[in-house]
Each structure stands twice: as C-alpha cells, then as structure tokens.
TrEMBL record:
Keyword DNA damage attributed: no
Membrane topology: Peripheral membrane protein
Single biological process term from Gene Ontology: Golgi to plasma membrane transport
Family designation: Belongs to the WD repeat L(2)GL family.
Recorded GO MF terms: GTPase activator activity; myosin II binding; syntaxin binding
InterPro entries found in the cross-reference section: Lethal2_giant, LLGL2, V_SNARE_CC, WD40/YVTN_repeat-like_dom_sf, WD40_repeat_CS, WD40_repeat_dom_sf, WD40_rpt
Subcellular location: Cell membrane; Cytoplasm
Repeat region (WD), residues: 230-264
Name by which UniProt lists this protein: Syntaxin-binding protein 5-like
Domain spans labelled V-SNARE coiled-coil homology: 1062-1122
Entry's Gene Ontology cellular component terms: plasma membrane; SNARE complex
SMART domains linked to this entry: WD40 (SM00320)
Primary residence: membrane
Organism: Oncorhynchus mykiss
Length: 1127
C-alpha cells in the first residue's frame, strides 16, 4: 500500500492558495485594461455546405426541364446539383441506402425510395429541401419505382412481384393493386421473381409494361385489369426501354444479349443482339457475355436511333476497365471508364416520352466520379466537369483553411492554374445548368489547401460557400522515381505505400511562401513565381536529428526561466547536425556491418528540373538515417517569411533552418532545450527491464543490439500526425487509414502536468507538437521585445527560443542568424496545440510577415524586388513607450487546458480546464469581426470557443456527428471570421460556421434549385391523327386509381408518416397547389384544342346546311307557279 504523506498535501494546498490569490489580484488588474468584446450571443454553430463527390453513390435522377441532377448514396444522403456553384445536401434520418430517385418533372419535388422500404417526397422549392411525406412499407420489399411524366400516381414494384400505386400528393396508397399471379400465365406455377421494371406505353397510358427478374415481361391493361400480352425469354432481365412510338421495346439480359420485341408479337423476339459477343460462323448462338445491367433506346428525327448500354463485355476481357457502349446506326463505340458504373442517364431535348427523344448527352455515375459524354460530337468527348468532385483524386492526408486572404492571391493562383487544364473536352456548355446562385454578402477571399497521398497539393477557391480548384502542385517531381529495387527500398523507406504523401503544410498568404512536410521525413520549401525557370540543381540540406538521453537528475521544483547552462547556438547535439551542401552527392555511408547512416528516405533528382509558373522549389530538407535508425516523421512545422526561417520538430527534437542562407541554425534534442533546469528525471533504463514492451515513444542510450525488436512496436495517433518509437520496424503505414484509440490516448495524458512534477515515465519521449513565431519577451523580466520562437511539447511545456536577426537587405544574406534557447514559459496538461500573443489591450498580435515579390525578376522588376527585400517586414508590436507592468499576454491551449500568461512577468492570469473526459484534437486562434477567440474541436465531438482574455467558454456544442472520425480528426481546421471545415467522408468536405452573423445570412447565401420554367409544349399530333386516331391515348388515372372505384388499400401494408409541419409544410402545400394549377392549365389547353376541332367540324356542317338550304330555296322558286299536271 502506498504511504500517505501529509506534508506533501499541505505544501500543495499552500502553493495552490498562493497561486490563486496572485492570479486573482492580477486578473482584477488586467480586467481593468482589457475589454471583452465577444459574448456568447456572437456564436452559433451550423453546417453551411458540403463539397466533393457523393461518397458511395447508389442511384441518380435528372429533371430535363429544370436541368438539375440528384444523386443518392448508400448512407441515405442526397446531393442535388444545378449550375456550377448551386449544390445542396440532404440526409435521410434512417441512413438507409437510396435505391431509386424520381423527379416530379418541373414541379420542384423529388421522390426517393430507400432500402428500408420507405418512400419519401422532398420539396425542392426551398433552399434547404425538406421531406413533406413518407410512406413505410411493412410487408413487402421495394425493388423498383416509376413515376410517369405529368402524373401524380407512383408505381412501386416489390420483391414479391406485386405493384402498388401511391398518390404522390397525399402519399396514400390506392386500392388498385397488380398481383403477380394475375399478371403471369395461370398455368405457370413458378414465381416470376421481383419486379425489375415498370413503365407505361408512350402512346397509350392505359398500357403498362412490367418486367420480372426471371425473364417474363407482361403488357398490362390498366382499365380491364388483365394482361394483354406476355413475353418470355430464357435469361434474366435487368432493364427494359421503349421505342417512342410505343410499338417496340428492348430488354437487356444477364447473358449479355439485347432482345427487341414487337408488342403484338409475343412468340419470339423481333431481333436478338449480342453487342460484344463473338458471332460463330456456323450460325450457332454467340458465347455468353457479362450481364447488360441497363439499356436505353433513344430516337432521333433525322438519323438512326441510339442504343446505350452498360456492361455486356466478353468474359475473356480480363482486366479490362468498365465500359459504356454507344450503338448508333452501324457504329459501335466502347467508352472505357476509370471506375465501375453505378448508373447512367441519357439527356434528351424533350421530356415527353411519345416524341423523338433527340439525345445530346449521357450522364454516367461511377463509383468515384461523374462523367458527362457529348453525343453530338464525333468521338463522344466528355464535358469538363465544373463541380469540385476531384477532392479524392488521391486520398486527402491533411488540410488547411484560410479566410480573409489578400485580394490579389486568388487571381494569381488562378492565372497559373489555368495553364494546367487538360485539353480535348467538349466545346459545349455544361448541360446541367438549373438553379440560381445565392445573393451572399460575404466578400472576403477564402482558400482551402489539401495535401494528398500522391504528394500533390491543391489550392481551392472557397469564397462565398463555393469551391473551385485554382492550382495543383506536384511535389513528387522533386524526387527520383522509385525503381523496383525492393532491397534498396526496404533499407531506406519508412512507409510501405505513398512515400510522397503530404503530412503537414505551412503557408504564408502574404508572402506566398509554402512549406510541405512529407511522411518520408522530408521538407520542401516553395516560392511563388509568375515566370518559368529551369533549376539545374535542386538545393538540398540533410539533417541528423537523433534523440539522446544523458544521465541527469531533475533539479528542485521551479526553475522555469532563470539563467542556466544552455547549448551554444547552432552547436551540434550529441548527434551532430549534418548541413549538406546545395548539391546532390550525399554523405551516406555504410558501416562494416551494413548499418545505414546519413541516408535520406527519398533521393532528390539530379537532372535539371523545369518549373512552370506557380510554386517553384527553393530548398529541400531531408532527415537522414542515423546509425541504422530511420528518421522520425515530422510532427510540427512553422514558417516565417519575415525572418526567413523554417522550424520543424519530431519526437527527437527540433531544427531551425534559414532558407535564405540555406543553412541549419539549430539542431537540438528536446531535452537540450531545457538545459540544466529540466523538470523531468530522464535516466537510462536498466538493462534488466529491456524485455518489457514500450508504452510510449521511449528510447535509451544503450546500443541497438542490446534491445529486442519487440521493444519498439508501440504507435499512437495524435491529431493528424503519428509518433513512432525510435527503433521500430522500418516499414510504417500511412496515417490515412489508422483509427485512433481514443480511450488509450486520453489515459496516456491523464497524468498531472503541474510545475511540481519531478519525474515522468522513463520510457516516454517528449515530442515537439507546436511552434509560434512572434515578437515578444524572450525571458522573464525582460524590458524589450525581440523576435522569438515559442515551442510546445507533448508533455505540456512551452519553451522560448530567442532569435537575433541581422538587418534587412544584403546584410541579412551575409550575417548569421543567432538562435538561443531562453527558458520555459509554463506547463499545461496534455500536448501543446496552439499559442498566440495579445497586446495590453487584448488585441491579437499576428506574426510578422514579408510581402510577396517576384523572385525571378530581371531589369526594372529586379530593382523592385531589391526594394521589397530592403523594406522592413510587416509586424504588429506594442509601443515601448507605455509604462505598464505587463505589456503582452500569451494564450496557450493544450489538449486539456487553456491559459493566459502575462509577459514579461510570466504570471498566470487565467486558467481554464477545457475537458476532463476527452482531449482536444484541434485548436486554432481565430479572429472574428469584433474580437478574437480560441476555437477547439474535441475527440468526443464537442466544439467550443474560448475567450482569449479570460479563457471563458463562449460556445459549446456537443456531439458534432462525425461518421469518419479518423478522417475528420486529420483534416479539421478552424479559420478566421467563424469558418471551419473537415472531411466528413473520404470524398467530401463539410464546411461549418460558428458565427451568429454567418448563420443569419446563410439563407441568402445559399442557391436556389427550383426556378419557374414553362413546360415545353406537347408534340403536335397532326390533323389526321387527331381526326382518325393513332396519336397518344390519355388515361384518367384519377378515376381509375381513386378511392371511389379502386377502394381503400390494406391498412397494414404501409404506414404514412407526415413531414414536418409549420412554414416548410405550408411551402410544400403551396407547391402542391402550383402543381394542380399546372395540370389544370394543361387540361384546359387540351380541352381548348378539342373545342377548336369541334368548331371546325360545326362550321363545315353549317356551310353544308346553308348550301342545301339555298338549293332547296331555288327549287321552291322554280316550282312555285306550276300546276300539278305540269310536273
């Protein structure tokens, strides 16, 4: 049993009481100086818009009049697309897969059928569509849904082979039911299978064709309630399509054949086609092919019809990609797709099925892409897709989000990115052009940057809740292409797949400097240029960053920032830094026993590199193997364009790089930052304990041969990075597919991080987790501010590093930069995530930055560049003339706590415990319209904002629903003006806002899907067809399916669920009235046409009667005076 020590308890109480008293006095004084501007009513959380390709799509529909597209997914989501920039996201509460979608064409409504046998009616006449009615089937499974054009009666086919009819306005079942046993032959004893197709004859609405899976097709007479014809084929049916004249239909089968049938010839098919089958010479049946999953039959007025089908390839085409086949006349075009085909639709000029269709495009929904093919041009080119559906082109590994960027940044990126566009697209405009843009008031530029597994970096214009790709950077071009030398790869690479994957990005929008860190422990620094250059030799720095633990005891309590023994700036650590020259010959070496040393994970290309306008490589920094140990992946990164410095860290330590002079300024282990005042006891572990498994990221100073391999198998996830033990297996997996063990992660940081801690787990390694450049006080009690770098660690310590910079201009390139560790600012619970600094009035102090200039300028432009270099960097610093005791405040946020510390006294003004049961995954200091705050996203789904002045909670929203937690954890970003984003699925970006002002204006910013459009006129039947018949025959479905004649449906068959009432319900009801008025107008037009024909016939009869009367009158006058005997 552990011994109880009352003295330690009393000492702790005294210390806590004294600290709270001093904090209270200081807090009272600071409240008089700083005025809080942000209140709880300034914050509100809501989702704004979702971008990207719908994850796992399952169905699709198109409104040919409104010109909008709907896509359903396996998770019950609906994505609606109009013109570029008009998108909408909806979600079914059940989360069941969407198996079918049907538009009420030009009526602003959509019917969705789900895999849980429910049917829903969506109102699209509002900016955020809502469900008006739902119908849940209890006894039968839904397999097919069909809604005829300009009809309010929905046909629903089931797995049992029955067909039920639903009134879409009231969402009630009709008593009219087509039973499977009445549809098939009475002599047939076998069940025909589920219903796979329902459609009415284009020329006769009273005739319904029903396709059963077993190969039986039935032509059903709705009025007489019996089957007129039955068509039987040996192979299973997948789809059926009509010829527009209603005299023929075509079926696709499971053996890769197409059968064309005349409706009055039920014996054999009129024609059988095997599009991809080999035709034997002896006249035998072709070899079977893969099933044709769908076929569409579209006619043209002046040419041959189109038959478009998916599937049907021969079985011997092993490895061939999925194809869409277009058969037009005698030509057959096979269009290969990159992914499997989910569904396709043919876009036609008319919505009427009884007219020439005139197809002009095909929309193909793939598993991971949306393709639109132009049928009107030779070669069938595709349209250039204007939607942001290529986010997942390579898996996203990290994201950054920037709001209120410089106004000239987006045009600059667009100008260089427009040269990267592919050629060969269709010259026509994008055919899905419905809806209207919103009237948003947000005018500030927003940019999203995504890093990908293949090493690409994409810049997106995210202004005004839209998303458009601006520029694409390929970082893998810097390195040599990997050869198939497995032995060499095993010796150098530290990841199995995607060695070029982007892990962290640092970007300065003002200077346009970019730095990316890859999973192979490499850094690439880019400059933005509008001119093309050729780099003969890529400049390279190789850095040895090794973790060493010396035999040292921790000092007594305290010792945060006093004078102590510090390493010499830029001095070598126990593993000295290697500053490679700006050339490629590596200093790699192998010891006699084959141990890798001074070898980077990737090899930088040695041939000249042609760099197009845009981001161009300025410097490559690589961590190298040290004595057989692979370099640890980079966990934190920061860039400052004003100082010309890059700093990065991992579980070994940190390194500061001067990218102007191409040198390494500082290379220290984390322990060496503390000097002699290290509060933790770090001793080498006893050799007798080496067989125990590691619980953290430890390492000791014993040789590799003394430790078994099983000692280095621990891995844990933190935010969007991975920490690995030093001597673990060289093959590591990319963090994109790992899922964090939240419970274990939380427990690992549940230990106390107070200043009285004198020892830690001997196996734990202190990793660098965050950086912040600023102009502040380097040490406790300083009277002047200097450029500084503040460092946060995984054990909750904040350390200061002073920077002594030469004057700007030529001297900056010639004189060295002095870097000196300066002490400890404070300690918090959990890893340090974010730091920020305020002046004495509570105003946020952003890091200094340099304005962009053209780095490759010549002539007069070169003089402008030199002037820009000599200008002092832009920075915001407090006035040195103010006679205040505290002139700055540091805000530090960790996984567990947030603190406000006064400078230069380093007194804690405020402290707030963010969470006790979870931990913070992402924290950012953001600027709102009227103040600043710290925004946090926790592992339990909570989002909260904290005041920068007193660390008080201003907003707390519990349980943001995140399905893909690992993806959201890796990509969650906060930015200024109340905006945030994360990847809600591997293919979609979800944007949210926590600003009350944005939430109030969101309705105006959203686009409208439905716009008032006149329905095209019905095709002219002609005089003779109207007089003698032969045109389309209408059907009074209301009389046939209504309750008066059909009766009521069975009560237990389906359950009606009304949609939400209130204003949205009233809007839906209004849309129903509009639909009724539209149908009434159409009926009046038809009645007027018939009355016109009646008038013509009446006029002809009147003219004939007048002629007869005239002849009769003439005859009367002639015979008037004659006697009877004169006749």
């Amino acid at each position: 049993m552990k011994k109880f020590n009352i003295r330690k308890v009393l000492d702790g109480l005294k210390e806590q009481a004294s600290s709270s008293a001093s904090s209270g006095q200081s807090g009272t004084q600071e409240n008089n100086l700083m005025q809080e501007t942000l209140q709880s009513e300034n914050f509100q959380l809501c989702k704004t818009v979702r971008h990207g390709f719908p994850y796992q799509p399952s169905s699709m529909a198109h409104d040919p009049v409104q010109k909008i597209l709907a896509i359903g997914t396996q998770s019950g989501a609906l994505r609606l697309f109009g013109r570029p920039g008009v998108e909408c996201y909806c979600q079914h509460e059940s989360g069941a897969a969407v198996i079918s979608l049907q538009f009420l064409i030009n009526e602003g409504a959509l019917v969705s059928a789900l895999a849980d046998d429910s049917v829903h009616l969506w109102n699209l006449r509002q900016k955020r569509p809502a469900i008006l009615h739902s119908l849940k089937f209890n006894r039968e499974r839904i397999t097919f849904v069909h809604l005829p054009f300009q009809s309010k009666w929905l046909y629903i086919g089931t797995e049992k082979g029955n067909i039920h009819i639903v009134n879409v306005e009231s969402f009630t079942l009709s008593g009219y039911v087509i039973m499977w046993n009445k549809a098939i032959e009475l002599s047939s004893k076998a069940h025909p299978g589920p219903v796979v197709h329902i459609s009415d004859n284009p020329m006769d609405e009273g005739k319904l064709i029903i396709g059963y899976e077993s190969g039986i097709v039935v032509l059903w007479d709705l009025k007489s309630k019996k089957a007129d014809y039955r068509y039987t084929y040996d192979e299973a049916i997948h789809s059926v399509a009509w010829h527009h004249e209603g005299k023929q239909f075509i079926c696709s089968h499971s053996d890769g054949t197409l059968t064309i049938w005349n409706i009055k010839g039920q014996g054999k098919p009129f024609q059988t086609i095997t599009p991809h089958g080999k035709q034997p010479k002896d006249g035998k049946k072709p070899e079977p092919c893969k099933p044709i999953l769908k076929v569409e039959y579209k006619t043209t007025r002046l040419g041959d019809p189109f038959m478009i089908l998916s599937g049907g390839l021969s079985y011997d085409t092993v490895g061939r990609r999925p194809c869409l086949t277009v058969m037009h006349g005698k030509s057959t075009a096979v269009l290969e797709m990159d992914y499997p085909i989910v569904d396709f639709l043919t876009l036609c000029e008319t919505p009427y099925p009884n007219d020439f269709q005139e197809p002009y495009a095909v929309v193909v929904l793939l598993e991971k892409d949306l393709v639109v093919i132009d049928l009107a041009q030779n070669g069938y080119p595709i349209f250039e897709n204007p939607y942001p559906l290529t986010i997942h082109e390579s898996p996203v590994t990290c994201c950054e989000y920037y709001a209120d960027c410089p106004v000239d940044l987006i045009p600059a990126l667009y100008s260089v990115g427009s040269r990267q566009k592919r050629q060969g697209y269709s010259k026509k405009e994008w055919p899905i052009s419905g809806g209207n843009w919103g009237l948003g008031t947000q005018s500030y530029p927003e940019i999203i940057i995504t890093g990908h597994a293949d090493g690409t970096v994409k810049f997106w214009d995210a202004s005004a809740i839209m998303l458009q790709v601006l520029y694409k950077l390929k970082t893998a071009k810097v390195f040599e292409k990997s050869r198939n030398n497995k032995e060499e790869k095993q010796n150098t690479e530290i990841v199995d797949e995607d060695p070029f994957a982007i892990q962290i990005m640092a970007w300065c929008p003002e200077s346009r400097m970019l730095c990316v860190a890859g999973v192979s422990a490499n850094l690439i620094i880019y400059r933005f240029s509008k001119q093309e250059i050729t780099t003969e030799v890529v400049q390279l720095l190789e850095v040895r960053l090794q973790y060493e633990v010396n035999d040292m005891e921790s000092p007594p309590e305290g010792g945060g920032g006093g004078d102590r023994d510090l390493p010499t700036p830029g001095a070598a650590s126990p593993s000295p830094q290697t500053t490679g020259p700006p050339t490629h010959p590596s200093t790699s070496s192998n010891s006699s026993d084959g141990v890798r040393d001074n070898v980077p994970c990737l090899k930088v290309r040695s041939t000249p590199l042609k760099q197009s306008p845009g981001y161009q490589v300025d410097l490559v920094v690589q961590l190298v193997w040290v004595s057989g140990e692979p370099p640890q992946q980079i966990t934190s990164l920061a860039l400052n364009s004003s100082y010309g410095l890059i700093v990065f860290g991992n579980s070994n330590g940190l390194a500061v790089v001067d990218y102007l002079q191409k040198t390494v300024l500082l290379n220290l282990g984390t322990v060496e930052l503390y000097g002699s005042n290290d509060p933790y006891q770090r001793q080498p572990r006893s050799p007798r304990k080496t067989r125990q498994p590691s619980g953290g990221n430890g390492k000791d100073c014993y040789p590799v041969t003394d430790l078994p391999p099983s000692r280095y198998l621990g891995v844990f996830v933190k935010r969007d990075v991975l920490f690995f033990p030093a001597k673990m297996s060289r093959k590591l997996s990319l963090p994109t597919e790992l899922k964090p063990d939240l419970d274990h992660r939380d427990n690992s940081f549940s230990r106390s991080r107070s200043s009285s801690v004198t020892s830690i787990d001997k196996e734990a390694r202190e990793a660098i987790t965050s950086f912040h450049f600023c102009e502040t006080f380097a040490r406790k009690g300083d009277s002047t501010i200097t450029p500084c770098l503040y460092v946060g660690t995984s054990l909750g310590t904040v350390l200061a590093v002073a920077l002594n910079l030469p004057p700007a201009g030529e001297q900056r390139l010639l004189q060295p930069v002095i870097v000196l560790p300066s002490g400890t600012l404070g300690r918090l619970k959990g890893s340090i995530l974010r730091m920020a600094f305020l002046d004495n009035t509570g105003t946020f102090l952003p890091p200094a930055f340099e304005l962009w200039y053209e780095p490759n300028a010549v002539g007069a432009d070169s003089e402008e560049r030199d002037k820009a270099r000599k200008r002092r960097p832009v920075s915001v610093s407090p006035s040195t003339s103010q006679e205040l005791q505290e002139s700055q405040y540091a805000v530090v946020c960790s996984e567990k706590q947030a603190k406000v510390i006064a400078l230069p006294s380093q007194n804690c003004i405020f402290k707030h415990s963010i969470t006790e049961t979870s931990f913070v995954l992402r924290a950012d200091v953001v600027q709102m319209n009227i103040g600043n705050c710290v925004a946090c996203f926790c592992a339990n789904g909570h989002i909260m904002t904290l005041s920068l002045l007193n660390a008080k909670v201003r907003l707390k929203v519990s349980r943001l629903k995140v399905i893909f937690l690992d993806t959201a954890t890796r990509t969650f970003c906060f930015t200024n003006l109340g905006q945030a984003m994360y990847l809600t699925s591997p293919t979609e970006i979800q944007r949210i806002t926590y600003s009350q002002e944005t939430c109030e204006n969101l309705q105006e910013m959203l686009g409208e899907l439905f716009t008032p459009v006149e329905t095209p006129e019905a095709p002219n039947r002609g005089f003779f067809k109207g007089l003698f018949g032969g045109g389309a025959t209408s059907l009074d479905r209301e009389e046939l399916f209504g309750e008066m004649q059909a009766g009521k449906a069975s009560r237990g068959l389906a359950q009606h669920i009304p949609g939400p009432q209130g204003l949205e319900g009233m809007k839906g009801a209004a849309s129903g009235v509009v639909a009724d008025l539209a149908r009434a107008r159409i009926a009046l037009d038809e009645r007027g046409q018939k009355l016109g024909e009646l008038d013509e016939r009446t006029a002809a009869m009147l003219a004939s009667a007048d002629s007869f009367g005239k002849h009769a009158h003439d005859m009367m006058l002639k015979c008037k005076d004659k006697k009877w005997y004169q006749f």
